[in-house]
Amino acid sequence: EQGGQKQEFQAEVGRLMDIIINSLYSKKEIFLRELISNASDALDKIRFLSLTDPKVLGEGDQSKLEIRIEADKEAGTISISDTGIGMTREDLMNNLGTIAKSGTSSFLEKMAKEGDMNLIGQFGVGFYSVYLVADSVTVVTKHNDDDQHVWVSQADASFTVAKDPRGNTLGRGTKITMKVKEDATEFLEEDQLRTLIKRYSEFINFPIYLQTTKTEEVEVPDEDAEKKDEEKKDEEKKEEKKDEDDVDVSDVEEEDESKEDKDKPKTKKVKKTSKEWELVNDTKAIWVRSPSDVKDDEYNNFFKSLTKEFDDPLDKIHFTAEGEIQFRSILFIPKKAPSDLFDKLQTKQNNLRLYVRRVFISDEFDDLMPRYLSFIRGVVDSEDLPLNVSREMLQQSRVLKVIKKKLVSKALDMMKKLSEAEENAIEAEEEEDKEEEDKAKAEAAGKEEKKEEDKEEEEEEGESEDGEEAIKKYKDFHESFGKAIKLGIIEDTKNRKKLAKLLRFESTRTKDGETVSLSRYVKRMKEGQKHIYYIAGDSKKDLEASPFLEKLKKRGYEVIFMTDPIDEYAVQHMDEYEDHKLMNAAKEDLKFGDKEEKKEKKRREKAKENLKDLIEWYKKLLGDKVEKLVISNRLTTSPMAVVTGTYGYTANMERLMKAQAL
Ligand code: ADP
Ligand code: MG
């Protein structure tokens, strides 16, 4: 297969390349982020294998796990090499070109709509971002299980793969060389490269070296003066050269310093250039640092590099677990849920990266978080787990169970804080509104006390800004992950109480866009109200018109609207909240347990007597279309309503079951 046969890119990959090549996207630099991230992944893979079999690392340079980046201005190329796992011939064919991954088409779709090239890494097609800056790409790669191969593509919808005629020069790993396009030559500049590598390698746990060129002026002896000793020196120089592999001395002689020359040699100044490898990144993991030393910006950037997300996270928690089992962790709540969050929750995805003493082990553990919390992203670094243990063994390890429990409790803490901040902000707002109202009243009554209040108002302004932020933050959180919390209520018996505090609902008392928590509902319950009332249905608007609300409205009781399909399932798993029963207003035996109810009971008995004939007549008319006909106390203005029996499904449940074919 010398020269390699031309292969066509799979059609979708071809289309993807077209889009990228012709993209007007200005942040072309992201290609470097993607290539560094791929190199780092490849290094993680070989390091993981080496845990059980150290021999896979080999000897010499290839045993050092690192990334090297160099630019050649004359040739117009940038290369990035790693000593990672490498690719076999088959890997090359599969990973770079022929088989379209599912990511390709979803990325194409997304690009057609919003067109944010920055997201390319999320779709598993980051490699192709090289075509933002390159018009031809060469990948040389050596995997332990195969000979070294070369993949070449000219950005013309075809590529070649061939065995490398130079042999296995890499030892192990991958070297990607890009011929830079004319409008991207800025990336050949050392300073530019250094800045970008710094930006995109901040959280890479392998050293990244950039090749730099040093130019120095040095004084060297004048040629003529040294002519006599030429032959002798030539020999000595050869020896020296061996030690100075990368040093390129302009064609002048060097002074032989070892020789003590009595008569002063004539010298001249020349420029000497040499290549050096400069370590660009700091490989100390961010989670190992003390939280007080890490700036918000650093957390945000870490989150972005970890998740390939574009937005900052909504919140984070960074902690060290001490005691019998030690680990460090940073957990994040993303700002937005993926559009297919619910499917993802069902299939359970793990979004935590597990490290053991700084060595990346896996991001595919099922057992670090319960599935309802799988939207949490982050890292866990254990001190106790053995490095060279199989995944199956890890799965059953007691250490892992302890870690899981702690992670869940920390994740819930983080959400609790968000939730409480929102509730406090709302309370403060309400108080403020009330004060203003009182003031307005007082002013109207002509008793104003002006001066002092001006100052106070200013202070409150600042507070309410924070408050607004807290409210907005929680709203975002609940909109994105409310469903996950409800799934948690169904599945996580132990944490049900904590989770219930995180719920928010619209109600008969919330204004548009507002919600209420169960705690606030309970706080503002009417005197004498015993239970929490809810009603489930399609939308607030529909439910507001429900005849089931009449009696409750008359009493001035707040009724929660459950408009999310999962609400009614979740609520079945929580009989009560803070000792108040949750009552479905659409069920037959609606109980109030208050004084009013006793009065009503009497009235109803009277009505039963009076309406006996009417009931008989209706019974004949409706036959077995209904289970029974009763005089009810639940209506005030509507003459009659069809309700669900205590043990029957509500109309809303029936609607849901039909929709989901449960
Ligand atoms: P992703 O990294 O999300 O899988 P990419 O398009 O960035 O998607 O890379 C595609 C695949 O190509 C990788 O999954 C990996 O198998 C392979 N690959 C890319 N770069 C390297 C590399 N430096 N070493 C080994 N394999 C690589
Ligand atoms: Mg990638």
UniProtKB/TrEMBL annotation:
Compartment(s) of residence: Cytoplasm
UniProt keywords, alphabetically: ATP-binding, Chaperone, Cytoplasm, Nucleotide-binding, Signal
**Main localization of the protein?**
cytoplasm
Please give the superkingdom of this protein's source: Eukaryota
Cellular component terms (Gene Ontology):
cytoplasm
Q: Where in the sequence does UniProt note compositional bias of the Basic and acidic residues kind? A: 225-241, 437-453
What is this protein identified as?
Answer: Histidine kinase/HSP90-like ATPase domain-containing protein
Source organism: Guillardia theta (strain CCMP2712) (Cryptophyte)
Lineage runs: Eukaryota, Cryptophyceae, Pyrenomonadales, Geminigeraceae, Guillardia
